[in-house]
Amino acid sequence: MKLKTAVAALLLSVAPLVQAQNNPGLQAEFELGVLVATGNTDERNISGRIGLTREFRRWRNTGEFTARHIEAEDETTAEQYRAQGETNYKFDEQQYWFLRGAWEDDRFSGYAFETSVTAGYGNRIWEVGDVSFLSVSTGLGYRYNRLDEPEPDGTDEEESAIARFAAELAYEISDRSLFRQKLATEVGLEETNTITESETSLQTTVVGNLALKLSYRVKHVSNPPDDAERTDTVTALSVLYTY
Q1: How much of the chain exceeds pLDDT 90, in percent?
Q2: How far apart are CA 81 and CA 108, in angstroms?
Q3: Among its keywords, does the record have Signal (predicted)?
Q4: What pLDDT is stored for residue 227 in this prediction?
């Protein structure tokens, strides 16, 4: 049932691509990775991502949804859903104010869900052409997480004011290859938990709008719930369609 839910979520995410094709101001990316192994080991690994960007003269809006499901020997070993959105108000060619919201449901993280809202200042300090850029941002916000299991004192939630620091680099190696590096840290100001995420990727165009993408993602939680790992890593090879 969980596998069917993951597949349904990925199929529904195709809808924005149809909208993008009818809206020249909207850029969309659809990413899909599937691995099925049978024989000595039965394993199904499905991952997907939909990313949307809309640029205006003064505004930049982005949204992203990702899903991942791994099943081995009829047992689910990984299940994760993430959604995030950000709006930027560009008050000159480089500087902007941002408002960002994020939600995550990772079945094996020790959390029922994780959410955060942040706002602050950003600067696209370097930009070449339509693809290559380096952007940095910093801001303050609020984090609310619900635990899978209550703490010994009965508490089943974490909430704190946070400071967020982030950077993103996109570099066009050639007209067929693109390197991306994203790094973000959210520091709890009222409790000691710090969450750091990094994503490194390289994509190469195969034909037309189709590309192959290799990515490596790391998430580190300084003070995770009991029985949860501090560091979670994902390496993925997927097909990427852009419009």
Answers
A1: 67
A2: 12
A3: yes
A4: 81
Residue 131 has a CB neighbour count (10 Å cut-off) of: 12
- For 78, the token pair is 């990984």
- The angle at the Cα of 19, spanning 16 to 23, to the nearest 5 degrees, equals 130
State which H helix or E strand residue 82 sits in. Answer: strand 75-90
Under DSSP, the state recorded for 174 is E
Residue 212 CA to its chain's centroid (Å):
18
Query: Over the stretch 32-42, which tens digit does the pLDDT of each residue have?
Result: 998 787 776 67
Place of tokens 């949307």: 52
With CA atoms as reference, report the closest residue to 184 among 135, 150, 229. 135
Are the CB atoms for 217 and 199 separated by under 8 Å? Answer: yes
Judge contact between 155 and 178, C-beta under 8 A.
Answer: no
Q: What is the pTM of this model?
A: 0.86
Instruction: Enter the tokens of residue 237.
Output: 């090879």
Per-residue pLDDT band for 154 (boundaries 50, 70, 90) equals confident
Residue type, 121: Y
Q: Which of 12, 65, 32 is nearest to 241 (CA)?
A: 32
Residue holding tokens 């009222």? 190
